[in-house]
Write a structure and sequence with these properties.
single chain, 20 helices, Rossmann fold, five-stranded mixed sheet, alpha/beta, six-stranded mixed sheet, Signal recognition particle alu RNA binding heterodimer, srp9/1, 631 residues
Length: 631
């Protein structure tokens, strides 16, 4: 990396990060629930007291007199008291309420029936049961329901009143420990971000000539390449606060909440300037508006996106606020996000090359106890196409395997097993294959290995195994690339098709029949042939042009749409050319294996006995078979 220039570090602003917002005691849902409980208790207490004041306590003899005069309307009889209503009205025109202490009277029921009084007999409840079941349990039930509702409201932003507050995690300059020393394999992206770091440290240096930094920087690349790590490293190098939030965290069930959170986030960032706002998975809110599937234009996501566009346009770049965002779906982002003045600088964080993978492995293994036989360069060669997250997983799996095997250090064998576990799946300890299936799989994998060694552009065979791994993988042949390749010639693609067909052709020669084990090989071979004809223009009959217009995600690899832009006659020619490539490759592989049949038989027999062969062992077996044939 070139020497970094003009590292003038201004005094860091004194900030208070993650300081909780001051709340009134009544904004706490538990305090509110306690107040509710007290008010309900007081209400029932005074209600009962008011009823007691209205009810007149009379002697039992007076009650008998009222009863004999047919002045009792209804009553409730219990062991300790009799309460009821008289037919006499008070001065306000309401029936009088009475209460009296009863005597042991066996004829009371007969008297009540005789005078036509409606009565109810009630046994006195235990005061403890009355307290528990009449007061405590109902109040606890109400308290629990309110607490549950309060927690649900609290999950939407602290409480219901704070639902529009942003959810960004704020890290102070001293909290962001990640720097460029923790990042590797993305040197080009680091160089692009150096200007952002220098601007945050010394914005006056750029402003003295009238220039200003871009408001938004968009990091695009495949998943796991370190986009989020790079954003943290920028904040760590610049020594400024770091606002981190995911795009999906803006969206809630209520329309307008996302826009409110965007406003609050930028308001807080302006107060902490200079700082970095990092929005991960920007495509969650920045998806293209409109289109054939659009139903309305006022949904929550579009309002949030509109507010984000307004805020990016509105803030002053001289304040030192830089917006970083990351996505692996740049093709679906709204065009308004990518125009000049917003996210007008895009930095590609691509998969690392051989040197990058080796540097990443050095970072992830610096805390591991490595054995002397570990060669990180060889491990980097073994992992083409893997990104930083995958390599971190390889190092972690190797350490776990070494600890499980009671080793004192992590060995090369642990790294190889970890790579195979990640690429092909975990090894199945209990091999349930029968003898005949194992014999067939041995010939199948031997066919792949023998063709890979024979074709001119085949990569060296590193390992051949017939131990089942993962889902449906009964065996595998691993090849070790000699160097990184970014282009493929027509000859190389034809050799790849031949290697893929080697397993099926070996079964044809050895057993006179084929099995379903070549399904994935045929699928991949057909895909290569289809791309040669339709995408790469490698068909002499169809000429140098492409067939079919595809919309492909550049970093996820999935085809979103495909439009047919050719005639039925061309489609028939395409099928014929794909069939021709597969048929000619099949015959080519058949000729190779018939010529080397002795090597095929010896390799399959040895593989069936040992189950795993290294690349050197495969070469020795082939050489031995050639020598026997010569003798």
């Amino acid at each position: 990396m070139p020497k970094k220039a003009f590292r003038i570090k201004p005094p860091e602003p004194e900030i208070e990060v993650n300081k909780p917002r001051e709340q009134s005691m009544w904004q706490n849902p538990w305090n509110f629930s306690l107040l509710y409980f007290i008010l309900m208790f007081a209400f029932f207490y005074f209600f009962q007291a008011s009823l007691g004041e209205q009810r007149q306590v009379i002697p039992y003899s007076q009650f008998q007199e009222y009863l004999n005069n047919n002045q009792v309307a209804e009553c409730v009889v219990s062991e300790k008291k009799i309460t009821g209503t008289l037919k006499i009205q008070d001065e306000k025109g309401r029936p009088k309420l009475f209460s009296t202490v009863p005597l042991k009277d066996d004829v009371l029921v007969k008297q009540l029936n005789q005078h036509g009084v409606k009565y109810t007999v009630r046994y006195d409840d235990n005061w403890l049961n009355n307290l528990i079941f009449g007061w405590i349990l109902p109040m606890l039930f109400i308290f629990a329901i309110w607490g549950f509702i309060s927690r649900r409201l609290g999950s939407m932003g602290g409480n219901f009143l704070n639902i529009g507050k942003h959810k960004a995690r704020i890290h102070a300059s001293e909290q962001t420990k990640v720097t460029f020393e923790d990042v590797a394999g993305v040197e080009e992206a680091e160089l692009e971000l150096e200007e952002v770091i220098e601007f945050l440290k010394n914005p006056q240096y750029f402003q003295r000539l009238g220039g200003h930094m871009p408001k938004g920087v968009l990091l695009v690349g495949p998943p796991g390449t370190g986009k989020t790590l790079l954003a943290k490293a920028v904040a760590g190098e610049a020594g400024v606060p770091f606002f981190s939030i995911s795009g999906s965290e803006f969206i809630e069930m209520f329309v307008g909440v996302g826009a409110a959170r965007v406003r609050d986030l930028f308001d807080q960032a302006r107060k902490k300037a200079p700082c970095i706002i990092f929005i991960d998975e920007l495509d969650a809110i920045g998806r293209q508006r409109g289109g054939p599937l659009s139903v309305g234009g006022n949904d929550e996501r579009e309002q949030t996106l509109n507010q984000l566009l307004v805020e990016i346009d509105g803030f002053d770049t001289s304040k030192g606020v830089v917006v970083l965002a990351a996505t692996n779906r740049p093709e679906i982002l709204d065009k308004a996000l990518l125009r000049a003045g917003r996210f007008d600088r895009q930095i590609v964080v691509d998969k690392p090359d051989l040197q990058g993978r080796e540097a990443i492995l050095k970072i992830h293994t610096k805390d591991l106890e490595l054995a002397n036989d570990v060669d990180l360069h060889l491990i980097a060669r073994r992992t083409p196409g893997l990104v930083g997250a995958d390599l971190a997983n390889v190092a972690n799996e190797a350490a776990i395997l070494a600890a499980r095997r009671r080793r004192e250090a992590v060995t090369t064998k642990d790294f190889e097993d970890a790579i195979e576990r990640i690429i092909a799946g975990p090894e199945k300890k209990h091999n349930s294959m029968g003898k005949e299936e194992k014999h067939r799989v041995a010939y199948h994998e031997s066919g792949h290995a023998l063709v890979a060694v024979t074709v001119p552009t085949g990569e060296p065979v590193h390992k051949v195994s017939i131990i089942p791994r993962g889902v449906g993988a009964l065996g595998y042949t691993l090849q070790l690339p000699v160097k990184e390749k970014f282009l493929a010639t027509k000859l190389e693609l034809l050799d790849q098709v031949a290697i893929l067909l080697g397993g099926r052709v070996a079964e044809e020669l050895a057993f006179g029949d084929v099995s379903t084990g070549a399904q994935n090989d045929l699928e991949r071979a057909t895909e290569i042939a289809h791309k040669m004809v339709c995408d790469f223009g490698m068909s002499d009959k169809l000429g140098p042009r492409t067939y079919g217009k595809k919309t492909v995600s550049p970093f996820l690899g999935s085809v979103t749409t495909e439009d047919r832009n050719y005639s039925d006659e061309s489609a028939e020619l395409i099928d014929q050319e794909i069939g021709r490539i597969i048929t000619e490759s099949h015959q080519r592989v058949l000729d190779i294996l018939q010529e080397k049949r002795q090597s095929l038989d010896l390799l399959a027999r040895t593989l069936e006995e040992r189950e795993v062969l290294s690349g050197d062992e495969v070469e020795e077996i082939i050489t031995e078979a050639v020598e026997k044939k010569t003798d």
